[in-house]
Design brief:
The complex is a heterodimer of chains A (399) and B (103). By secondary structure, chain A is mainly beta. Chain A is built from 2 helices and 32 strands. In chain A, strand 1 (38-43) and strand 2 form a beta hairpin. The longest helix of chain A has 7 residues, at 10-16. Chain B is mostly helical and 103 residues long. Chain B has a single domain, classed as Cytochrome c-like domain (Cytochrome Bc1 Complex, Chain D, domain 2). Chain B has helices spanning 2-14, 25-40, 54-57, 62-71, 87-99. Chain B starts with a helix and ends with a helix. The chains are: A mainly beta (399), B mainly alpha (103).
Chain lengths: 399, 103
Protein backbone atom coordinates (compact mmCIF):
# COMPACT_ATOMS: atom_id res chain seq x y z
CA UNK A 1 0.00 0.00 0.00
CA UNK A 2 1.07 3.52 -0.72
CA UNK A 3 1.97 4.91 2.67
CA UNK A 4 1.69 8.49 1.66
CA UNK A 5 -1.71 7.77 0.18
CA UNK A 6 -2.90 6.44 3.48
CA UNK A 7 -1.68 9.41 5.40
CA UNK A 8 -2.73 11.90 2.78
CA UNK A 9 -5.34 13.80 4.57
CA UNK A 10 -8.13 15.68 3.05
CA UNK A 11 -7.93 17.93 6.04
CA UNK A 12 -5.31 20.21 4.68
CA UNK A 13 -7.33 20.89 1.58
CA UNK A 14 -10.54 21.25 3.52
CA UNK A 15 -9.01 23.67 5.95
CA UNK A 16 -8.31 26.19 3.22
CA UNK A 17 -11.94 26.34 2.27
CA UNK A 18 -13.10 26.70 5.83
CA UNK A 19 -15.70 24.26 7.01
CA UNK A 20 -15.99 22.11 3.91
CA UNK A 21 -19.12 20.04 3.65
CA UNK A 22 -17.33 16.89 2.70
CA UNK A 23 -13.71 16.25 3.15
CA UNK A 24 -13.20 14.31 -0.06
CA UNK A 25 -10.91 16.73 -1.79
CA UNK A 26 -9.70 15.24 -5.05
CA UNK A 27 -6.04 16.16 -4.99
CA UNK A 28 -4.84 17.52 -1.70
CA UNK A 29 -1.12 17.73 -1.24
CA UNK A 30 0.01 14.76 0.82
CA UNK A 31 0.43 15.76 4.44
CA UNK A 32 1.77 13.83 7.33
CA UNK A 33 0.08 14.77 10.52
CA UNK A 34 -0.65 13.68 14.07
CA UNK A 35 -4.08 13.58 15.68
CA UNK A 36 -3.17 14.57 19.23
CA UNK A 37 -4.52 18.11 18.88
CA UNK A 38 -7.67 17.18 16.99
CA UNK A 39 -11.18 16.89 18.32
CA UNK A 40 -14.80 16.51 17.31
CA UNK A 41 -17.70 18.78 18.17
CA UNK A 42 -21.24 17.46 17.96
CA UNK A 43 -23.59 19.54 15.83
CA UNK A 44 -26.70 18.14 17.41
CA UNK A 45 -29.44 19.52 15.21
CA UNK A 46 -27.88 18.67 11.86
CA UNK A 47 -26.55 15.23 12.75
CA UNK A 48 -23.01 16.22 11.86
CA UNK A 49 -19.62 16.60 13.50
CA UNK A 50 -17.14 19.44 13.18
CA UNK A 51 -13.58 18.13 13.05
CA UNK A 52 -11.42 20.71 14.82
CA UNK A 53 -7.76 21.44 15.37
CA UNK A 54 -6.81 22.80 18.80
CA UNK A 55 -3.59 24.39 17.55
CA UNK A 56 -5.16 26.23 14.62
CA UNK A 57 -8.25 26.87 16.77
CA UNK A 58 -10.32 26.14 13.72
CA UNK A 59 -12.77 23.70 12.20
CA UNK A 60 -11.15 21.62 9.48
CA UNK A 61 -14.10 19.72 8.07
CA UNK A 62 -17.68 18.75 8.66
CA UNK A 63 -18.64 15.08 8.73
CA UNK A 64 -22.31 14.50 7.98
CA UNK A 65 -24.86 11.73 8.09
CA UNK A 66 -24.76 10.66 11.74
CA UNK A 67 -28.49 10.75 12.48
CA UNK A 68 -29.93 12.11 15.74
CA UNK A 69 -27.02 13.42 17.76
CA UNK A 70 -28.89 14.93 20.69
CA UNK A 71 -26.99 13.84 23.77
CA UNK A 72 -24.29 12.23 21.61
CA UNK A 73 -20.96 11.30 23.15
CA UNK A 74 -17.63 10.16 21.74
CA UNK A 75 -14.68 7.95 22.71
CA UNK A 76 -11.36 7.48 20.90
CA UNK A 77 -9.22 4.52 19.89
CA UNK A 78 -5.83 4.25 21.65
CA UNK A 79 -4.06 5.37 18.44
CA UNK A 80 -6.26 8.50 18.35
CA UNK A 81 -7.08 7.93 14.71
CA UNK A 82 -10.63 6.66 15.19
CA UNK A 83 -13.57 8.06 17.07
CA UNK A 84 -16.68 6.16 18.08
CA UNK A 85 -19.82 8.25 18.21
CA UNK A 86 -22.87 7.19 20.22
CA UNK A 87 -26.04 8.78 18.80
CA UNK A 88 -29.39 9.14 20.46
CA UNK A 89 -31.10 7.12 17.74
CA UNK A 90 -29.04 4.00 18.48
CA UNK A 91 -26.48 4.71 15.77
CA UNK A 92 -22.87 3.74 16.47
CA UNK A 93 -20.49 5.43 14.07
CA UNK A 94 -16.75 4.96 13.62
CA UNK A 95 -15.01 8.07 12.32
CA UNK A 96 -11.60 8.16 10.66
CA UNK A 97 -10.09 11.48 11.76
CA UNK A 98 -7.27 11.44 9.23
CA UNK A 99 -9.64 11.02 6.33
CA UNK A 100 -12.42 13.06 7.96
CA UNK A 101 -15.06 10.54 7.05
CA UNK A 102 -17.32 7.85 8.38
CA UNK A 103 -15.43 4.54 8.38
CA UNK A 104 -18.39 2.41 9.46
CA UNK A 105 -21.84 2.95 10.87
CA UNK A 106 -24.34 0.51 12.42
CA UNK A 107 -27.76 0.99 13.96
CA UNK A 108 -27.41 -1.06 17.10
CA UNK A 109 -30.56 -0.17 19.05
CA UNK A 110 -33.63 2.04 18.94
CA UNK A 111 -32.45 4.58 21.43
CA UNK A 112 -29.14 4.89 23.23
CA UNK A 113 -27.37 7.15 25.65
CA UNK A 114 -23.61 6.71 25.58
CA UNK A 115 -20.74 4.30 25.51
CA UNK A 116 -17.20 3.41 26.42
CA UNK A 117 -14.10 1.75 24.94
CA UNK A 118 -12.20 -1.03 26.73
CA UNK A 119 -8.72 -0.30 28.07
CA UNK A 120 -7.11 -2.36 25.30
CA UNK A 121 -9.12 -0.53 22.64
CA UNK A 122 -10.76 -3.67 21.25
CA UNK A 123 -14.33 -3.42 22.57
CA UNK A 124 -16.98 -0.72 22.37
CA UNK A 125 -19.84 -0.89 24.88
CA UNK A 126 -23.08 1.02 24.30
CA UNK A 127 -25.65 1.83 26.92
CA UNK A 128 -29.20 1.57 25.58
CA UNK A 129 -32.56 3.04 26.58
CA UNK A 130 -34.55 1.10 24.01
CA UNK A 131 -34.58 -1.90 24.29
CA UNK A 132 -32.39 -1.37 27.37
CA UNK A 133 -29.27 -3.29 28.32
CA UNK A 134 -25.73 -2.95 27.01
CA UNK A 135 -24.35 -4.10 23.67
CA UNK A 136 -20.69 -4.68 23.02
CA UNK A 137 -18.99 -4.40 19.62
CA UNK A 138 -15.65 -5.19 18.06
CA UNK A 139 -13.87 -1.84 17.69
CA UNK A 140 -12.42 -2.90 14.33
CA UNK A 141 -15.50 -3.76 12.33
CA UNK A 142 -18.36 -2.87 14.72
CA UNK A 143 -19.64 -6.44 14.61
CA UNK A 144 -21.60 -7.39 17.68
CA UNK A 145 -19.63 -9.30 20.30
CA UNK A 146 -22.21 -9.52 23.08
CA UNK A 147 -25.63 -8.27 24.04
CA UNK A 148 -26.29 -8.04 27.77
CA UNK A 149 -29.94 -7.54 28.68
CA UNK A 150 -30.39 -5.56 31.88
CA UNK A 151 -33.03 -7.56 33.72
CA UNK A 152 -33.10 -6.35 37.31
CA UNK A 153 -33.75 -8.46 40.39
CA UNK A 154 -37.48 -7.81 40.01
CA UNK A 155 -37.43 -9.40 36.55
CA UNK A 156 -38.12 -6.24 34.50
CA UNK A 157 -35.87 -4.91 31.72
CA UNK A 158 -34.06 -1.67 32.44
CA UNK A 159 -32.57 1.28 30.65
CA UNK A 160 -28.86 1.52 31.30
CA UNK A 161 -26.81 4.68 31.91
CA UNK A 162 -23.31 5.79 32.82
CA UNK A 163 -21.30 3.05 31.15
CA UNK A 164 -17.55 3.53 31.61
CA UNK A 165 -14.46 1.37 31.24
CA UNK A 166 -12.51 -0.33 34.01
CA UNK A 167 -9.05 -1.88 33.67
CA UNK A 168 -8.95 -5.45 32.35
CA UNK A 169 -11.54 -5.26 29.56
CA UNK A 170 -14.33 -4.47 31.98
CA UNK A 171 -17.26 -2.07 31.83
CA UNK A 172 -19.36 -0.76 34.69
CA UNK A 173 -22.84 0.75 34.29
CA UNK A 174 -26.07 1.54 36.12
CA UNK A 175 -29.58 0.19 35.59
CA UNK A 176 -31.92 3.18 35.66
CA UNK A 177 -35.25 1.42 36.24
CA UNK A 178 -33.92 -1.44 38.36
CA UNK A 179 -31.64 0.60 40.64
CA UNK A 180 -28.63 -1.69 40.21
CA UNK A 181 -24.99 -1.38 39.14
CA UNK A 182 -23.37 -4.09 37.05
CA UNK A 183 -19.81 -4.88 35.99
CA UNK A 184 -19.35 -6.82 32.74
CA UNK A 185 -15.91 -8.45 32.64
CA UNK A 186 -14.61 -9.43 29.19
CA UNK A 187 -11.21 -10.46 30.55
CA UNK A 188 -11.81 -14.06 29.53
CA UNK A 189 -13.12 -13.38 26.02
CA UNK A 190 -16.41 -12.61 24.35
CA UNK A 191 -18.68 -13.96 27.07
CA UNK A 192 -18.81 -11.51 29.93
CA UNK A 193 -18.77 -12.43 33.56
CA UNK A 194 -21.28 -10.23 35.37
CA UNK A 195 -21.01 -8.82 38.89
CA UNK A 196 -24.21 -7.20 40.16
CA UNK A 197 -24.79 -4.71 42.96
CA UNK A 198 -28.47 -4.57 43.92
CA UNK A 199 -30.47 -1.97 45.75
CA UNK A 200 -28.11 0.89 44.96
CA UNK A 201 -30.83 3.57 45.12
CA UNK A 202 -33.76 4.82 43.05
CA UNK A 203 -33.31 5.87 39.42
CA UNK A 204 -29.56 6.19 38.86
CA UNK A 205 -29.39 8.70 35.95
CA UNK A 206 -25.65 8.77 35.17
CA UNK A 207 -22.39 7.36 36.47
CA UNK A 208 -18.65 7.84 36.17
CA UNK A 209 -15.41 6.48 37.58
CA UNK A 210 -12.38 8.39 38.89
CA UNK A 211 -9.25 8.20 36.74
CA UNK A 212 -7.58 5.79 39.18
CA UNK A 213 -10.46 3.32 38.60
CA UNK A 214 -11.22 3.40 42.30
CA UNK A 215 -14.50 5.25 42.83
CA UNK A 216 -17.59 4.63 40.72
CA UNK A 217 -20.47 6.93 41.55
CA UNK A 218 -23.97 7.03 40.13
CA UNK A 219 -26.22 10.04 40.61
CA UNK A 220 -29.66 9.10 41.92
CA UNK A 221 -32.79 10.82 40.76
CA UNK A 222 -35.42 9.02 42.80
CA UNK A 223 -33.74 10.06 46.04
CA UNK A 224 -31.17 12.70 47.04
CA UNK A 225 -27.74 11.23 46.92
CA UNK A 226 -25.25 9.12 45.03
CA UNK A 227 -24.46 5.41 44.94
CA UNK A 228 -20.77 4.72 45.52
CA UNK A 229 -18.60 1.66 45.01
CA UNK A 230 -14.96 1.52 46.13
CA UNK A 231 -13.54 -0.74 43.43
CA UNK A 232 -10.22 -1.04 45.23
CA UNK A 233 -11.87 -2.78 48.17
CA UNK A 234 -11.17 -6.50 48.56
CA UNK A 235 -14.92 -7.04 48.33
CA UNK A 236 -16.48 -3.98 46.72
CA UNK A 237 -19.86 -2.97 48.13
CA UNK A 238 -22.29 -0.26 47.17
CA UNK A 239 -23.17 2.46 49.68
CA UNK A 240 -25.09 5.74 49.53
CA UNK A 241 -23.15 8.97 49.88
CA UNK A 242 -24.30 12.59 50.23
CA UNK A 243 -27.76 11.28 51.09
CA UNK A 244 -30.45 13.79 51.84
CA UNK A 245 -28.84 16.91 50.40
CA UNK A 246 -32.33 18.23 49.61
CA UNK A 247 -33.73 17.35 53.03
CA UNK A 248 -35.55 20.15 54.80
CA UNK A 249 -35.58 22.48 51.83
CA UNK A 250 -37.51 22.88 48.64
CA UNK A 251 -36.30 20.79 45.72
CA UNK A 252 -36.44 22.94 42.58
CA UNK A 253 -37.78 21.45 39.36
CA UNK A 254 -34.94 19.85 37.40
CA UNK A 255 -35.35 20.94 33.78
CA UNK A 256 -32.24 19.18 32.61
CA UNK A 257 -30.60 16.08 34.03
CA UNK A 258 -27.12 16.75 35.42
CA UNK A 259 -24.12 14.83 34.07
CA UNK A 260 -21.13 13.26 35.73
CA UNK A 261 -19.06 13.21 32.56
CA UNK A 262 -15.93 15.38 32.68
CA UNK A 263 -15.75 15.37 36.47
CA UNK A 264 -12.36 15.19 38.07
CA UNK A 265 -10.78 14.24 41.30
CA UNK A 266 -8.53 16.87 42.82
CA UNK A 267 -6.58 15.34 45.69
CA UNK A 268 -9.41 14.06 47.89
CA UNK A 269 -12.10 16.29 46.44
CA UNK A 270 -14.71 15.38 43.85
CA UNK A 271 -17.29 17.91 42.69
CA UNK A 272 -20.80 16.71 41.90
CA UNK A 273 -23.92 18.46 40.63
CA UNK A 274 -26.84 18.75 43.08
CA UNK A 275 -30.15 17.87 41.41
CA UNK A 276 -32.79 20.35 42.57
CA UNK A 277 -30.51 22.93 44.19
CA UNK A 278 -28.39 25.81 42.96
CA UNK A 279 -25.34 24.07 44.37
CA UNK A 280 -22.26 22.08 43.57
CA UNK A 281 -21.53 19.37 46.14
CA UNK A 282 -17.94 18.73 47.21
CA UNK A 283 -17.38 15.15 48.30
CA UNK A 284 -14.40 14.18 50.44
CA UNK A 285 -13.10 10.95 48.91
CA UNK A 286 -11.01 10.08 51.97
CA UNK A 287 -14.03 9.95 54.27
CA UNK A 288 -16.85 9.77 51.69
CA UNK A 289 -18.61 12.63 53.44
CA UNK A 290 -19.76 16.05 52.36
CA UNK A 291 -17.05 18.71 52.45
CA UNK A 292 -19.12 21.64 51.36
CA UNK A 293 -22.26 22.71 49.51
CA UNK A 294 -21.05 25.41 47.16
CA UNK A 295 -23.76 27.95 46.28
CA UNK A 296 -23.88 28.42 42.50
CA UNK A 297 -25.66 30.41 39.80
CA UNK A 298 -28.15 27.67 38.87
CA UNK A 299 -28.53 23.92 38.84
CA UNK A 300 -25.18 22.57 37.64
CA UNK A 301 -25.01 20.27 34.61
CA UNK A 302 -21.28 19.59 34.05
CA UNK A 303 -18.68 20.21 36.79
CA UNK A 304 -15.54 19.90 34.71
CA UNK A 305 -12.23 19.74 36.55
CA UNK A 306 -9.30 21.61 35.03
CA UNK A 307 -6.79 18.85 34.21
CA UNK A 308 -4.39 19.96 36.96
CA UNK A 309 -7.24 19.94 39.50
CA UNK A 310 -6.69 23.53 40.63
CA UNK A 311 -10.18 24.70 39.64
CA UNK A 312 -13.42 23.41 38.13
CA UNK A 313 -15.59 25.09 35.50
CA UNK A 314 -19.33 24.57 35.76
CA UNK A 315 -22.28 25.15 33.43
CA UNK A 316 -25.98 25.17 34.27
CA UNK A 317 -29.39 23.97 33.15
CA UNK A 318 -32.31 25.87 31.69
CA UNK A 319 -33.12 28.72 32.45
CA UNK A 320 -29.63 29.61 33.77
CA UNK A 321 -27.68 28.12 30.91
CA UNK A 322 -25.97 31.26 29.63
CA UNK A 323 -23.42 31.23 32.46
CA UNK A 324 -20.18 29.49 33.45
CA UNK A 325 -18.73 29.66 36.94
CA UNK A 326 -15.25 28.79 38.13
CA UNK A 327 -14.79 27.07 41.49
CA UNK A 328 -11.44 27.36 43.23
CA UNK A 329 -10.58 23.97 44.69
CA UNK A 330 -8.52 24.92 47.78
CA UNK A 331 -11.25 27.28 49.06
CA UNK A 332 -14.21 25.56 47.38
CA UNK A 333 -15.64 28.98 46.50
CA UNK A 334 -16.92 30.37 43.24
CA UNK A 335 -14.21 32.81 42.22
CA UNK A 336 -15.40 33.91 38.80
CA UNK A 337 -18.62 34.03 36.77
CA UNK A 338 -19.16 35.00 33.16
CA UNK A 339 -21.83 34.59 30.51
CA UNK A 340 -20.50 33.22 27.23
CA UNK A 341 -23.95 33.41 25.59
CA UNK A 342 -27.25 31.58 25.12
CA UNK A 343 -27.30 27.85 25.94
CA UNK A 344 -23.80 26.89 27.08
CA UNK A 345 -24.01 23.12 26.66
CA UNK A 346 -20.53 21.76 27.26
CA UNK A 347 -16.89 22.57 27.94
CA UNK A 348 -13.67 20.72 27.28
CA UNK A 349 -10.13 21.56 28.38
CA UNK A 350 -7.07 20.93 26.27
CA UNK A 351 -5.09 18.00 27.69
CA UNK A 352 -2.94 20.11 29.97
CA UNK A 353 -5.57 22.74 30.60
CA UNK A 354 -4.07 25.84 28.99
CA UNK A 355 -7.22 26.46 26.96
CA UNK A 356 -10.88 25.58 27.29
CA UNK A 357 -13.46 25.28 24.52
CA UNK A 358 -17.06 26.18 25.33
CA UNK A 359 -20.06 25.40 23.14
CA UNK A 360 -22.67 28.15 22.98
CA UNK A 361 -25.48 26.36 21.19
CA UNK A 362 -27.89 29.17 20.43
CA UNK A 363 -25.12 31.44 19.15
CA UNK A 364 -23.90 28.66 16.79
CA UNK A 365 -20.43 29.19 18.16
CA UNK A 366 -17.64 27.58 20.14
CA UNK A 367 -15.50 29.93 22.21
CA UNK A 368 -11.85 29.20 22.91
CA UNK A 369 -10.55 30.72 26.13
CA UNK A 370 -7.17 31.25 27.66
CA UNK A 371 -7.67 29.50 30.98
CA UNK A 372 -5.23 31.51 33.10
CA UNK A 373 -6.28 34.91 31.78
CA UNK A 374 -9.94 33.81 31.58
CA UNK A 375 -10.14 35.65 28.28
CA UNK A 376 -11.68 34.60 25.00
CA UNK A 377 -9.06 34.17 22.31
CA UNK A 378 -11.06 32.75 19.42
CA UNK A 379 -14.55 32.00 18.18
CA UNK A 380 -15.31 29.10 15.90
CA UNK A 381 -18.58 28.98 13.98
CA UNK A 382 -20.23 25.60 14.58
CA UNK A 383 -23.91 24.74 13.96
CA UNK A 384 -25.80 24.22 17.23
CA UNK A 385 -22.75 22.82 19.04
CA UNK A 386 -23.15 20.51 22.01
CA UNK A 387 -20.48 18.05 23.23
CA UNK A 388 -16.79 18.80 22.58
CA UNK A 389 -14.42 15.82 22.62
CA UNK A 390 -10.64 16.08 22.26
CA UNK A 391 -8.53 13.08 21.31
CA UNK A 392 -6.63 13.12 24.63
CA UNK A 393 -9.66 11.27 26.00
CA UNK A 394 -8.16 8.20 24.30
CA UNK A 395 -5.76 7.88 27.19
CA UNK A 396 -8.10 8.55 30.08
CA UNK A 397 -10.15 6.06 32.01
CA UNK A 398 -13.81 6.96 32.51
CA UNK A 399 -15.72 9.68 30.73
CA UNK B 1 -43.17 20.23 7.52
CA UNK B 2 -42.94 23.43 5.48
CA UNK B 3 -46.70 23.74 5.67
CA UNK B 4 -46.60 23.32 9.40
CA UNK B 5 -43.96 26.00 9.65
CA UNK B 6 -46.00 28.40 7.53
CA UNK B 7 -49.11 27.77 9.56
CA UNK B 8 -47.12 28.44 12.63
CA UNK B 9 -45.95 31.83 11.41
CA UNK B 10 -49.50 32.74 10.54
CA UNK B 11 -50.64 31.81 14.00
CA UNK B 12 -47.85 33.86 15.46
CA UNK B 13 -48.70 36.85 13.29
CA UNK B 14 -52.40 36.66 14.01
CA UNK B 15 -51.99 36.19 17.72
CA UNK B 16 -52.81 39.57 19.21
CA UNK B 17 -50.84 40.92 22.10
CA UNK B 18 -53.59 39.82 24.46
CA UNK B 19 -52.01 37.01 26.46
CA UNK B 20 -49.12 38.48 28.35
CA UNK B 21 -48.09 35.19 29.91
CA UNK B 22 -48.24 33.39 26.57
CA UNK B 23 -44.93 32.83 24.85
CA UNK B 24 -44.38 33.42 21.14
CA UNK B 25 -44.98 30.13 19.32
CA UNK B 26 -41.52 29.82 17.78
CA UNK B 27 -40.03 30.17 21.24
CA UNK B 28 -42.26 27.33 22.38
CA UNK B 29 -41.25 25.18 19.43
CA UNK B 30 -37.60 25.68 20.23
CA UNK B 31 -38.21 25.07 23.96
CA UNK B 32 -39.90 21.75 23.21
CA UNK B 33 -37.24 20.65 20.72
CA UNK B 34 -34.29 21.70 22.88
CA UNK B 35 -35.36 21.59 26.51
CA UNK B 36 -38.00 18.85 26.44
CA UNK B 37 -35.78 17.19 23.85
CA UNK B 38 -32.96 16.81 26.36
CA UNK B 39 -35.05 14.06 28.01
CA UNK B 40 -37.53 13.09 25.27
CA UNK B 41 -35.04 13.31 22.37
CA UNK B 42 -34.61 16.10 19.82
CA UNK B 43 -36.96 14.16 17.52
CA UNK B 44 -39.23 13.45 20.52
CA UNK B 45 -38.82 9.76 19.86
CA UNK B 46 -37.98 9.19 23.51
CA UNK B 47 -34.93 9.10 25.74
CA UNK B 48 -34.97 9.06 29.51
CA UNK B 49 -38.59 10.19 29.10
CA UNK B 50 -41.05 8.32 26.86
CA UNK B 51 -41.79 9.03 23.20
CA UNK B 52 -43.95 12.11 22.61
CA UNK B 53 -44.75 11.22 18.98
CA UNK B 54 -48.41 11.13 17.87
CA UNK B 55 -48.54 7.30 17.85
CA UNK B 56 -47.39 7.20 21.48
CA UNK B 57 -49.89 9.83 22.61
CA UNK B 58 -52.82 8.65 20.46
CA UNK B 59 -54.99 7.35 23.30
CA UNK B 60 -54.27 10.30 25.57
CA UNK B 61 -56.32 13.39 26.14
CA UNK B 62 -54.67 16.74 25.36
CA UNK B 63 -55.94 18.27 28.60
CA UNK B 64 -54.50 15.42 30.64
CA UNK B 65 -51.15 15.77 28.84
CA UNK B 66 -51.22 19.53 29.44
CA UNK B 67 -51.76 18.84 33.14
CA UNK B 68 -48.73 16.51 33.16
CA UNK B 69 -46.67 19.21 31.48
CA UNK B 70 -47.70 21.82 34.05
CA UNK B 71 -47.48 19.64 37.15
CA UNK B 72 -44.84 17.07 36.22
CA UNK B 73 -44.91 13.46 37.40
CA UNK B 74 -43.81 13.24 41.06
CA UNK B 75 -40.97 10.82 41.87
CA UNK B 76 -39.83 10.78 38.22
CA UNK B 77 -37.57 13.16 36.29
CA UNK B 78 -40.59 14.78 34.55
CA UNK B 79 -40.48 18.28 36.08
CA UNK B 80 -43.42 20.64 36.59
CA UNK B 81 -43.24 23.37 33.95
CA UNK B 82 -45.85 25.68 35.46
CA UNK B 83 -43.16 28.15 36.52
CA UNK B 84 -42.09 28.44 32.87
CA UNK B 85 -45.26 27.80 30.86
CA UNK B 86 -48.83 29.11 31.07
CA UNK B 87 -51.81 26.70 30.90
CA UNK B 88 -52.40 27.95 27.32
CA UNK B 89 -48.79 27.20 26.39
CA UNK B 90 -49.09 23.70 27.85
CA UNK B 91 -52.33 22.95 26.03
CA UNK B 92 -50.91 24.31 22.79
CA UNK B 93 -47.86 22.03 23.19
CA UNK B 94 -50.00 18.99 24.10
CA UNK B 95 -52.27 19.53 21.10
CA UNK B 96 -49.35 19.97 18.70
CA UNK B 97 -47.59 16.91 20.12
CA UNK B 98 -50.66 14.81 19.33
CA UNK B 99 -50.71 16.16 15.76
CA UNK B 100 -46.98 15.84 15.13
CA UNK B 101 -44.85 18.61 16.57
CA UNK B 102 -43.64 21.39 14.22
CA UNK B 103 -39.89 21.55 13.43
Amino acid sequence: MNRRGLLTSALAAASFSGLATTARAECPPPVLRGTGALGLIVERASGSLALVDQIQRAALARIEGLGDLSHASIVYSPCERYAFVFGRDGGLTKIDLLEARIAKRVMQAGNSIGGAISDDGTLIAVSNYEPGGVKVFDANDLNEVASIPAIGAKGAPSKTVGVVDLPGRRFIYSLYDAGEIWIADFGAGATPELTKFGNVGRLPYDGNVTADARHYLAGLFGEDGFAHIDLWAAEPKCARVLSGYNAGREKLPVYKMPHLEGWGQSSDTLLLPAAGQHEVLALDLATMTEKKRIPAHGQPIFCVMRPDGREAWVNFGHPDNDTVQIIDIPSLDVVHSFAPGPAVLHLEFTARGHEVWISVRDADRVDVMDVRKREKIAEIPVQKPSGIFFTARAHRLGS
Amino acid sequence: MIKAALMLTTVALLAPACAAAQQPRDKLVSLVRQDCGSCHGLTLKGGLGPSLLPQALAGKDADALAAIILNGVPETPMPPWKGELSPDDALWIATRLKEGFPR
